[in-house]
Amino acid sequence: MCGAELITSNSFKTFKHSRIDARVKIPGNADGFSAFWLLGNGTGDQSWPKTGEIDIFEFVNNGKENGIPFFTVHWYGTNCPLKQCQKTISPTPVANYTKDFHVWSFTRNANEINVSIDGKLWSRITRQELAAIGGNYDVIFNEPMHLRLDLSSGGVWANDPLRNAEEGDLIFDYVRVWSSN
């Protein structure tokens, strides 16, 4: 898999309860995998999925799921397959994300996570929903995480080996973060 990540400083800025807004244009290239996500920091023996992960959006242009955004959270749980619990929501797309810029807004507090697109609520995950799945879901709501912006080509989900990889640009006009911690 080929890819690049944007890291904007020598040290990651972490957020707990926060709001993040980003104005983004998604590439429509074949075999592309775009992601706007948060990863828990982890210390000592804590590695993924114990640190938690929140995918604000993932777009996979693999010929089957082109233009469909996925909102997923991942966390550790001995009761889940491979000790990795997850909940994925893929509501109906509300726009053509590859033709225009759209503002993605993410809010996280101790009880829920909301994602809005262009000011309209698109998806929500609550503490109660994750409690029903089990595991250490508290990391999703209460642990500091850092922001990651990622554009990759290939990979298992996006087609591996690459078949028809095309160039593409994941364009962020701006990213703004407000944090209560």
TrEMBL record:
<feature type="domain" description="GH16">
    <location>
        <begin position="1"/>
        <end position="181"/>
    </location>
</feature>
<dbReference type="InterPro" id="IPR050546">
    <property type="entry name" value="Glycosyl_Hydrlase_16"/>
</dbReference>
<comment type="similarity">
    <text>Belongs to the glycosyl hydrolase 16 family.</text>
</comment>
<dbReference type="Pfam" id="PF00722">
    <property type="entry name" value="Glyco_hydro_16"/>
</dbReference>
<dbReference type="InterPro" id="IPR013320">
    <property type="entry name" value="ConA-like_dom_sf"/>
</dbReference>
<protein>
    <recommendedName>
        <fullName>GH16 domain-containing protein</fullName>
    </recommendedName>
</protein>
<dbReference type="InterPro" id="IPR000757">
    <property type="entry name" value="Beta-glucanase-like"/>
</dbReference>
<dbReference type="GO" id="GO:0005975">
    <property type="term" value="P:carbohydrate metabolic process"/>
</dbReference>
<dbReference type="GO" id="GO:0004553">
    <property type="term" value="F:hydrolase activity, hydrolyzing O-glycosyl compounds"/>
</dbReference>
